[in-house]
Amino acid sequence: MFRRTFWFTAGAAAGVWATTKVNRKIQQLTPESLAAQAANKAIEAGHRLKDFALDVRAGMVQREAELGGALGLDAPPPGDRELPEPRRAALGPTPHKTTTTFSARPTRPISYNRNEDH
């Protein structure tokens, strides 16, 4: 009698556990849940990429300062550099654009011979 009760209770508990496990997995595989997981992974990857880029930039600035010190160069820090003058000002005023109109009929007949172009 106790043996049957034990196995009945153990089977019922296993069934409840399996049912909840399957329901959780089904909830994770819904389109909304998959989209949210993908968005979270993309945001996390973006943060990691940004951190990597900042680390690389800091290493570049540090190495540039080390090389500048070793070579005796007194270059201003990267943030203090001035921008060059715009190139367009050096070229002078921009020329006016001309428009070309095409007539409806060509002045000479169109030849479709491909060998003529070569």
Task: List the SSEs and their pairings.
Elements (H helix, E strand, L loop, with lengths): L1 H27 L2 H41 L15 H5 L27
List keywords for this structure.
single chain, 118 residues, mainly alpha, 3 helices
In short:
This protein is an all-alpha fold and 118 residues long.
What would your notes on this structure say?
The protein has 118 residues and is mainly alpha-helical. 62% of the residues lie in helices and 0% in strands. It contains 3 helices and no strands.
Tell how many strands the DSSP assignment holds: 0
Radius of gyration: 37 Å
User: What class would the helix/strand composition place it in?
Assistant: mainly alpha
In whole angstroms, the N-to-C terminal distance is: 101 Å
The low-confidence runs, each spanning 5 or more residues with pLDDT under 50, are none
Number of DSSP helical runs: 3
What is the molecular shape? Answer: flat
Helix content: 55-70%
Largest sheet: none
Question: Strand fraction band?
Answer: under 5%
Averaged pLDDT: 80
H/E series: HHH
